[in-house]
Amino acid sequence: MEEYIKNETANFQINAIKSMLSRGLSDIEIAAAFNQMKEPNLSNPEQGWLAKDIRTIISNFKLEKPTSNLENGLKTKNGVLKYKLVNTLDLGEVFLQILIWICLIVVTLGIAFPFYAYYFVRLIVNSTEVHEIT
């Protein structure tokens, strides 16, 4: 059992939270398990365990490993690669498209508007590239 602090009860609870997290339990499920086991809530003895108490302990003692591949990079056999999203759209293209679509919306009496929304989102997505950070 890893020792986080000197208080034996609190140390047991922290290790139990870490163990439950490794088994995939959520903060709500951990709080319910602590209430079922009648574990005393040392931060607020008048009430039972709440999910926010569990989240506070998780963040204070850094019990949860980061799981985002975007933060940690992509692990390969040559090392860790990191990527960023880069949009190559320039302001001139955006204004030209807006002007063209406003004319179309007016000419079609508003029928072109849903198509404009779709086209504009597609334009942004299509002009976005993934670049490797070196």
How is this structure best described in words?
By secondary structure, this protein is an alpha+beta fold. 52% of the residues lie in helices and 13% in strands. It has helices at residues 8-22, 27-36, 51-60, 69-72, 91-107, 113-126, and strands at residues 74-76, 79-87, 128-133. Strands 1-2-3 form a three-stranded antiparallel beta sheet. α2 packs across α3. The longest helix is centred in the C-terminal third of the chain and has 17 residues, at 91-107. It starts with 7 loop residues before the first helix and ends with a strand.
Q: How are the secondary structure elements laid out?
A:
Elements lengths: L7 H15 L4 H10 L14 H10 L8 H4 L1 E3 L2 E9 L3 H17 L5 H14 L1 E6 L1
Helix pairs in contact: 2-3
Descriptive keywords:
single chain, three-stranded antiparallel β-sheet, 134 residues, alpha+beta, 6 helices
Mean pLDDT: 84
Q: What shape does the CA trace take?
A: elongated
Largest sheet at a glance? Answer: 3 strands, antiparallel
Measured distance between first and last alpha carbons:
40 Å
- In terms of DSSP E residues, the strand content is 5-15%
How many helices? The count is 6
Helix and strand string, N-terminal first? HHHHEEHHE
Question: What would you call the structural class?
Answer: alpha+beta
Stretches with pLDDT under 50, minimum 5 residues = 66-71
Which bin fits the share of residues in helices? 40-55%
Query: What's the Cα radius of gyration?
Result: 26 Å
Number of beta strands? 3
Strand order across the largest sheet: 1-2-3
